[in-house]
UniProtKB/TrEMBL annotation:
Protein source organism: Ruegeria atlantica
Transmembrane segments: none
Stretches assigned to the AAA domain: 134-324
Entries under Gene3D superfamilies matching the protein: P-loop containing nucleotide triphosphate hydrolases
Protein name, as recorded: Sporulation initiation inhibitor protein soj
CDD domains, per the entry: ParAB_family
Length: 461
């Protein structure tokens, strides 16, 4: 109360314009943005190094026997110690006999040993049919902040810990996934940009062969397209600090693809712009080199996202349990329908006229995943979302825990966090959040593979 016993005014009343003007800086020109960007780049580098080693390189921590036997290899700790003692050629880890720690490479070696020598009824290596290609998983929603990158990163790490070989493709020019995986991307030539450019250049070459026969003028290939034709997977795929996760990274210049792709399409209207990423994965042998390909998309339904969706076997759509995110996700599905149905209609008119098979986009499974869930406040809304989305919904709702928040502050996934930095109960509960999300995803994954194997008559491995 003031001296007249009147309640204080809200802070936005009785402001003095002259005093407000005195606080303003001089008018800001474009060069100030460059200065701000420089400061942010320096700060981003400093903060990112919190999750890095002293030399600036990310390294994956070691795993204890407790973790290995609880989460990774289904054997008892005492049995693992006996096996190590009896097989000195196996990795022995670091530390004393009762407290040994192993790299993930060593864990993968132990997995193979138990798969060959262990009990046949236990799953030492994850299910993977022989002779079938990798499954491509796109994580998408055009609303930002719904947990796309976090979901994609933790599923990739879960799959890697489970023994799968994983490729992660970052299509978001903000490069958050690239930062999490410690990637270094100098320019757009180390992103998917040259891969899509290469697909267009090949389409132009094919068109020019037809034009040459008909005596028509050829479409020129500029220097960018000529260079793109020489791009190989090894030019863009980089190793990460995870031994079985590779990365195609992203950086700011990747956004240029959103402007260049429609220009190419105007130059050659028969070029299927949505197939650039698919063709790279299929024709360059990438799907034979990995078990799972995770694609992290930008928060927009642009040309890069369309490529990711067209390439996907499995589509995951994260959203929070709020009205706005539910509403936005519904609009996202509507835009997916409009976009891909429009492509089908446009292409199939020509396909039918030429007596060719019609184009049809299909996905093995589409699942919406509720992320950052707070059961005390969001259960009713989550139930409503579940009711309306039906079989599109994951059954498990991914809780937000202290472990998730702290790992994010350190530019790490929760699987990179050392459990000794937490209360054991906090770690187990936080890890369970993503373990259960992965379990539901893995059930979808192996179900899709099994169905493919039955349809194709492939053997299982």
């Amino acid at each position: 109360m003031n001296k007249n016993n009147q309640p204080p005014l809200p802070p936005y009343l009785n402001l003095d314009p002259e005093k407000a003007a005195a606080k303003l800086p001089d008018p800001i020109g474009t060069s100030r943005f460059a200065k701000a960007a420089t400061f942010c780049a320096k700060g981003r580098e400093d903060l990112a190094r919190r999750g890095y080693a002293p030399d600036g390189e990310k390294r994956l921590r070691r795993f204890s026997i407790w973790e290995i036997t609880k989460y990774l290899i289904p054997v008892a700790p005492a049995h693992l110690r006996r096996v190590l003692k009896a097989n000195t050629e196996l990795p022995q880890g670091e530390g004393e006999a009762g407290s040994k720690w192993f790299t993930l490479e060593e864990v993968l070696t132990l997995r193979k040993h138990f798969a060959a020598e262990g009990v046949s009824t236990k799953e030492y290596l994850p299910y993977r049919p022989n002779g079938l290609p990798a499954k491509v998983v796109s994580v998408a929603n055009f609303k930002g902040g719904v947990g796309k990158t976090s979901t994609a990163a933790h599923l990739a790490m879960s799959a890697a810990l489970d023994g799968y070989k994983v490729l992660v493709i970052d299509l978001d020019s903000q490069g958050s996934m690239t930062s999490i995986l410690g990637g270094t991307v100098a320019d757009e030539w180390q992103t998917v940009f040259p891969l899509i450019a290469k697909d267009y250049a090949r389409a132009v070459q094919e068109e020019n062969r037809v034009r040459q026969v008909g005596g028509q003028a050829e479409i020129p290939l500029d220097e960018t397209l000529q260079e793109a034709l020489n791009t190989t997977p090894t030019d863009v795929i980089q190793k990460t600090h995870w031994p079985n996760i590779d990365l195609i990274g992203a950086q700011l210049n990747l956004y240029w693809a959103e402007f260049q792709i429609p220009v190419w399409r105007m130059g050659l209207k028969s070029w299927p712009l949505w197939d650039g990423l698919t063709n790279f994965l299929e024709t360059e042998g990438v799907l034979n080199d990995y078990d799972i390909v995770f694609i992290d998309t930008p928060p927009a339904l642009g040309y890069l996202t369309i490529n990711a969706l067209a390439a996907a076997d499995i589509l995951l759509v994260p959203l929070g349990a709020s009205f706005l995110e539910f509403d936005s996700t519904g609009r996202f599905f509507d835009m997916l329908y409009t976009t891909f149905a429009s492509i089908e209609d446009g292409e199939n008119t020509a396909q039918r006229a030429a007596g060719l098979p019609e184009l049809k986009f299909e996905w093995d499974v589409v699942r919406a995943i509720i992320t950052r869930f707070d059961a005390s406040q969001q259960t009713d809304m989550a139930n409503v979302i579940q009711a309306y989305f039906g079989d599109f919904m994951n059954a498990y709702r991914q809780d937000f825990t202290a472990l998730v928040g702290q790992a994010g502050e350190q530019v790490n996934g929760i699987y990179e966090a050392d459990y000794r930095d937490f209360n054991r109960e906090t770690y187990v509960r936080g890890r369970e959040t993503f373990d259960r999300t992965y379990a539901e995803f893995k059930e979808v994954l192996i179900g899709c593979w099994w169905r493919d194997a039955q349809l194709g008559g492939e053997s299982n491995g």
